[in-house]
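If I may wish for something, please sit down with the protein I am sending here and say whether tokens and residues agree:
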Amino acid sequence: MKLTSSLREKKRYVKFSVDGNFSNSQVKTAIESSFKDLHGRLGLAEAGLQFVNLNKSNGVVRVNNKTVDKLKSAFTFIDKINEKPARISSLKTSGILERVI
């Protein structure tokens, strides 16, 4: 049974930049833990975060369209990763992956 487009979960792609030299797993863990601290486990589950493209300085996260603002707020609360100063900021948001990359 195929879902109609009105019932399907809509997604957005958020491109972000990382100031500092950190591994991919450290960045992923910092974003997930910041989101969980702010919005709880239920909020994290509703957001459906999926890291599509991740390298040392940039990355792309796929997220539910209703939780894009929650993800951006989680970015602002990240000031340290592994006790080193860090800053994550969103650069671009789109519903199509090719427009973000």
The chain has a mean pLDDT of 90. Residues 65 and 74 are 15 Å apart (CA to CA). The helical segments are 24-47, 68-76, 97-100. Strands lie at 11-19, 50-54, 58-64, 80-81, 84-85, 87-94.
